[in-house]
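Sorry, explain these tokens?

___
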Amino acid sequence: MSTVSRALNNNTSISESTRKRVWQLAKEINYQPNHLAAGLRKGRSSLLGVMVPHIEGHFFSSVMHGIETVASKAGFNIMICQSNENVANEKKNIETLMNARVEGILVSLARNTHDFKHFDKVSQLSVPLVFFDRVLEEANVNSVVIDDYLGAYQAVTHLIEQGCTHIAHFAGPQHLNIYKNRYRGYQDALRAHGIALDEVLVHTCDMKISDGVEGMEKLLALDKLPDAVFSASDFSAVGALQVLKARGIRVPQDMALAGFSNETFSSLTEPRLTSVDQRCEQMGQSAVKLFLEMLDDKSGSFSPRRIVLQPELLVRESSLRVD
């Protein structure tokens, strides 16, 4: 059997005629080499595990593109899992990735994840672990994030510069860093321009299109309507836009809109949606590079790092009220 193995690996200690006969037989029986098993015999799997809340939409698919680009150049294959925004799935996925003997794990947390306990096994086995986008900020972990605070601050400041003074906010679950920081950016931008925060204008939700519909219907039931909405997600912003168009309320003349994430559809809506770009591909690339640094560190004293990327406000017609 060792002779066959060496022949299949084109070992020059085996004669060319023998190698040809072995490969001919392998083709006849449709033999497929088990690269994972071979890698494990050499002490590595060349697998990088990635877990995301969901793969649909522009953000996570673009992050995955960035991850794959850098990982493949480094000789790694990607194993992708989705939590579908459920912490129970997240826990099962961690077990799956560990059983597959991945050499590292990149994670963006599910919406209902409140602690890191199920990641303890990963750390105990010294498997490099990098969080991206959604991170529990109080934990001392390796992470790659966008400056969500700055992105929100820029978006709300832009709305104020367009003459808006009664700005509502669609906020996501506040235990997640991204939504908490976007809410802070919203608050501080108002404060910096002398506008008092009105809690009635804040609608906390799960950031789905249906949440945007519900949130806008609640806002339209108020005695005093907002003149703008800053949504922490493009999805809920689009839900709000649907309601406004159905009611004949002009955007941006009657109510301006701005979202966050620069989803692909944000440039296809009518009017096109102002949004904050999150540097998706750069985030994925940075996460892999951080993993590779951890993998190359032989001292065992790698200090957790936090990489913060800079957002970009993309101004489009949904918020432009001033020429």
Q: What stands out?
A: Residues 2-33 form one domain. The CA atoms of residues 153 and 189 lie 5 Å apart. The radius of gyration is 25 Å. The first strand starts at residue 47 and ends at 52.
